[in-house]
Prior knowledge:
Chain A is an alpha/beta fold. Chain A has helices at residues 6-14, 39-47, 78-94, 109-116, 147-156, 181-192, 207-211, 214-222, 238-244, 253-265, 314-327, 347-350, 353-363, 381-389, 392-399, 449-458, 464-467, and strands at residues 15-18, 24-27, 30-33, 58-61, 97-99, 124-127, 141-144, 158-161, 165-172, 200-205, 231-234, 276-281, 288-290, 298-300, 342-345, 373-376, 402-403, 424-427, 443-446. Chain A is 34% helix and 17% strand. Chain A is globular. In chain A, strands 5-4-3-6-7 form a five-stranded parallel beta sheet, sandwiched between helices. In chain A, strands 17-16-15-18-19 form a five-stranded parallel beta sheet. Chain A has a four-stranded parallel beta sheet with strand order 11-10-9-12. In chain A, α6 runs parallel beside α8 and α13 (353-363) packs parallel to α16. Chain A has two domains: 6-276, Aconitase, domain 3, CATH 3.30.499.10; 291-467, 2-Layer Sandwich (Aconitase, domain 3), CATH 3.30.499.10. By secondary structure, chain B is α/β, with parallel strands linked by helices. Chain B has one domain: Aconitase, domain 4 (Alpha-Beta Barrel). Chains A and B meet through α2, α3, α5, β8 and α11 of A and α5, α7, α8 and α9 of B.
Amino acid sequence: MMAKNLFQKVWDAHAVRVLANGQTQLLIGTHLIHEVTSPQAFGMLRDLGMKVKYPERTFATVDHIVPTDQREQPFSDPLADAMIKELAKNVEEFGITYFDLSTGKQGIVHVVGPEQGITQPGTTIACGDSHTATHGAFGAIAFGIGTTQVRDVLATQTIALGKLKVRRINVEGSLRPGVYAKDVALHIIALLGAKGGIGYAYEYGGSLFDSFSMEERMTVCNMAIEGGARCGYVNPDQKTFDYLKGRPYAPSDDDWESVVDKWQSIASDPDCAYDDIVNISAEDIAPTVTWGVSPDQGFSIEGKIPDPMEQTDENERLSIQEAISYMKLEPGQPIKGTKIDVAFLGSCTNGRLSDFREVAKYIKGHKVSPGVKAIAVPGSQIVDAIAKQEGLDKIFNDAGFEWRAAGCSMCLAMNPDKLVGDQLCASSSNRNFKGRQGSPTGRTILMSPVMVAAAAVSGKVSDAREIFQFDAV
Amino acid sequence: MISKRQFFMSLEKVRKINGRSVYVPGNDMDTDRIIPARFMKCVTFDGLGEYLFYDVRKDLDGNDKNHPLNEPRYFGASVLISNANFGCGSSREHAPQALYRYGFRAVIAESFAEIFFGNCCALGMPCVVATQESIKSLAELINAVPETEVSIDVVNSEVCAGDLKFAVDIPSGAKKSLMNGKWDPIAELQEAEEPIAHLVTELGYLKRN
């Protein structure tokens, strides 16, 4: 039999048929929904007199608009309140499982799926959210869709899609102390560009990914879309299976052995072909930060702001000019030392338990710099609960962070957590677009959670290795 | 409410788009810029056109800033021209909805982010890919003579404007859907009810809970 990669195997298994236009009708095994991109889809469904075909295969939660401080309903924002009511109405009417605020299981949809064991290897997963790629960490083909496609999944459990090519990204070796999965994600995006992945699924592999925890794999897959790749994945292995075992929606113990056999079989065959291969050495990756308004405008913490005049491509020159003017930075200026106003820890990229545990190790005994507003926002109510059992909330509070309740928070500012004016935010989130964090002139520098903590305590963009004590490896 | 039959019969065959155009320069035009997140606090897409490119078009007091869409000479444009990686970032269909409701019926750019491309296609709004040189020539022409009519021939993958004529790329799946009036796939997807049911069971999805 011809050797195949995981993407090809999962695609072939889920292909219902070829449509008249040549696209594939692809079965979506698992559908996740949230309050922002689903209401119009339910509206279209009603207009067409259709029903949700497989309600047991759709799971809902609320994340984008929920406040992370005031949690009682009605919310003070009437628009947000209307959206959450609309979601409640829709899931009730169509019989969809809903992890709402009262369940203790609510959270960012990409944190909830894995946490509940809904995210499984070899499946197709879609959600009206571009960071659905996160679930690829489990060896699933997971991608974001628009609202019309949300309707298609609700009505038929399928969508029309053209097949992607597959680029294997090998990262060999181990990371230097103070370098994290987030740096790997930012490094890959800076290397291949924000549009480098258009038309591709990214398969992340090599010894670094083998050694990564599931949460580290999620961080990298999460940002596949920032590199233009609609999905990214890691082949499933024993870590994947161990993570899932015993979770509420994972297969039962009786079925476990046979399911794991099946999961193992969907990993890429050793001699399979790829459309492209990129090799990266883990030792070459530095703590990485962005300096512009696109996630590929990033470099090592030692980097200096590029000079647009040195660019030969006119569009590229304009992009740099626009970025540094928006960011209020000067060509040649080192990024290190840039004063920050806000520090944000959280999001579907870095709002998991391991992120808070890692930061907690370093911020003990440190204080957030005066004048810096620092918030730590768990990705789910479960992350929040476990963090509190471990006393992490206290460590953060003592250091001067505000420990908040679960939600998307300041990643996209559809809730009260927003930048004000041209505040500069050191952020563990995934996008540094103009206005992304809620103020039309707000500025974002993306970095790892530990680098966010270093910025918070020093009041400026810093190399965490110069602020905290790292163990030599 | 329209009937299902009326809905599917009503899909227009998108073969040619003719109209005036406007060039909004820049690479990596993300969907947050096309429609800032705060305007997504809504349960319908109605009214989104008003907020298209809001934060780059308006200052903090709501007054017009220097932006092509604010220039009267481009008013009424139905073809948007931009550069590489247009529509990147968030999957929000609110972005193509805002473009459509503002009055755009097609986008010409150097490349498109995939989710955005699919979302536009599902609205019957073609996204066609042109080379950097073609975009540059077209932009120069439009900026000099804004009333130039731009014609996008979806069937023949060609753009004409004044004396300018160049080939564009439209992926075959999107092209067929648009020209045959099948850009909303729901009817065709529904036809496969039985094979879907078979596959859902075979892959064990109904056992997982």
